[in-house]
Amino acid sequence: MRSPLPPPPPRFRAPLRAGPSAARWRWGGGGMQRAVGSLPLGPALRARLAAAGFQTAQELLDTGPCGLSREIGISKEEALEALQVVRQECSGDAARTAGGAGTTRKCTALELLEEEQAQGFIITFCSALDNILGGGVQLTKITEVCGAPGVGKTQLCMQLAVDVQIPECFGGVCGEAVFIDTEGSFMVDRVVDIAAACVQHCRLIAEAHQEEDHQKALETFSLESILSHIYYFRCRDYIELLAQVYLLPDFLSEHSKVRLVVIDGIAFPFRHDFEDLSLRTRLLNGLAQQLIIIANDHKSAVVLTNQMTTRIGQSQSTLVPALGESWGHAATVRLIFHWDKSQRLATLYKSPSQKESTIPYTITPHGFRDVQPPAVTQNTESTEMNPRKRPRREEEK
Amino acid sequence: MVVLRAGLCPGLTEEMIQVLRANSVRTVVDFVSSDLEDVSQKCSLSYKALVAVRRVLLAQFSAFPANGADLYEELKSSTAILPTGSPSLDQLLDSGLYTGEVTELMGAPGSGKTQVCLSIAASVSLGLKQHVLFLDSTGGFTASRLYQMLQAQAEDEEEQAVGDTALSQLEALQRIQVARVFDVYEMLSALQEVRDRLSQQAVSCTGPLKTVVIDSVSAVIHPLLGGRQSEGLAIMMQLARELKMLAKEFSLAVVPTGMQVELDIGNSDVQEPSPATPTEGL
Lengths: 397, 282
Prior knowledge:
The complex is a heterodimer of chains A (397) and B (282).
Chain A: H1 43-52, H2 57-72, H3 76-97, E1 105-108, H4 109-118, E2 121-122, H5 127-133, E3 137-138, E4 142-147, H6 153-163, E5 176-181, H7 188-209, H8 212-220, H9 223-228, E6 230-234, H10 238-254, E7 258-264, H11 268-271, H12 277-297, E8 301-306, E9 308-312, E10 317-321, H13 324-328, E11 333-340, E12 343-350, E13 358-364, E14 367-370
Parallel strand pairs in A: 4-8, 4-11, 5-6, 5-7, 7-8
Antiparallel strand pairs in A: 2-3, 9-10, 11-12, 12-13, 13-14
Helix pairs in contact in A: 2-3, 6-7, 10-12
Chain B: H1 14-22, H2 28-33, H3 36-43, H4 47-61, H5 68-78, E1 81-82, H6 87-92, E2 97-98, E3 105-107, H7 113-127, E4 131-136, H8 143-156, H9 165-174, E5 176-180, H10 184-200, E6 209-215, H11 217-221, H12 231-250, E7 253-264, E8 271-275
Parallel strand pairs in B: 3-7, 4-5, 4-6, 6-7
Antiparallel strand pairs in B: 1-2, 7-8
């Protein structure tokens, strides 16, 4: 495997060899040539390995546990553990290089396109919002909803928790929902109202279309089943929230039908009573990565709600989403809800595939809805009048 | 600082290494920089053998000086300039992305970094018919948006008018490989895998790879930075080194994206942007 050693060269070489000319002693051969610094070992261990002169994983494996423990002065058990980690990493690398799939999430863009086109969206029952989102809340992405208090973020979350359960024949994804509540704003009776309206809506569609699978789906799509498929967790502080998110993958592998994870109030536990800001940034970024892994591995949508804070500028102050700019990179899609006199507006602020736009929406007793009823409609919800003419205090939440 | 091991070169046996180690000559650097007469006396090894071993070690491990003119010629022949898909950006970058260099995109959230990355992938894959590796760590890669860009770019180019433009777009999509890495160690594994594939020069599904786009690097590094541990900085530098070595050794254009963190200093209105990205300090 090793090429024969070159003879001692003359003092100056001309011309240079193109290609991998540097570090010639790193012959190819799987992940064995991985630098020690890139292996997932603890920092103290890594520092000792560097001081002892180990540079590649191959050297570590060649030395063996006894030699390793002698060289760097750690116990044999620790050396054995470290070598196991190294071996795992390198065998994973070798498997991937050889063409095996392993656990890597790798595919061509064409395959991803096909996957995306087959994927469903979670509709919000507000067709304008669905349009600007490109069909609805996307699976495998993190959507963040920011807004001032009272603008309707929790309403949207509750609506989505119901909408994710709509059977596929009615255009839904037929999944279950996990609702993580940090603010205590989840009202079950409100969810009952929303769910009842949703079931009614589907029933009307079924009556209009009169198809077999519609009837069958309606049998399982009832108020009780909707409520029983929303898994509710209450987290009181940031430690509980972090623990819940880190335990979520286990929960999701048991409940594989979950297609939506809602965290209502991700800002709340991190904003009050937090002294160390750099720790907060670290925790938030770790949380973001964990959430994107969950979204990706379990093919579910993650919806977060965030609060607004005031950024005081030179001459004026503006409302911006809370938790800082570094958090702004965490969400893939960002929606900002705000008021315009008495009209609620939703702005798509950040999206990888849709352009920025603003639409009006409203909250009715039946849930999250459009301002005007949609053009092709089968519902007879006459309460959905144009609320622009109605003063604010008459709107019921 | 490579540890001396038996078999590193002919003539370096296990007994020699044990004896040398007993006299605190443990690494190649120690061996090469020590006084061989002294060592041969202390370790009772033959001076000739030690000199031979030193020659071989020097040949193996030292870097060679190169002629400036030769370097320039090599650079001219091995560097390619890749279009980014946007003519004004190409102009800014002095006609495009250079292979052998790491070009970094930085910006606030929503400023368009993912869009530029998608545009680069589309233009390299469609225009130059070369493979692109896209490492996605934020979940922001949307294949339908990429397809939109490909369609738009295909309409611009008139040479594509002949035959199936749809087929060429699908082929372009197949040339873009997407790997989802959400952890810094996964990213390092993925980069190692690229390097193994390229150094073995295996004609695999990667084909002629010229571009590696990484969106984004700060998403995997940021959870490790801050606090009192400097482990995050060590990993950051390791990743930076990997990217530069990939670019230089295999003549790739590497495009990482990062974000800018604003630091608030006191009560004044001036805010100092401080890039928290891996090429900082290089």
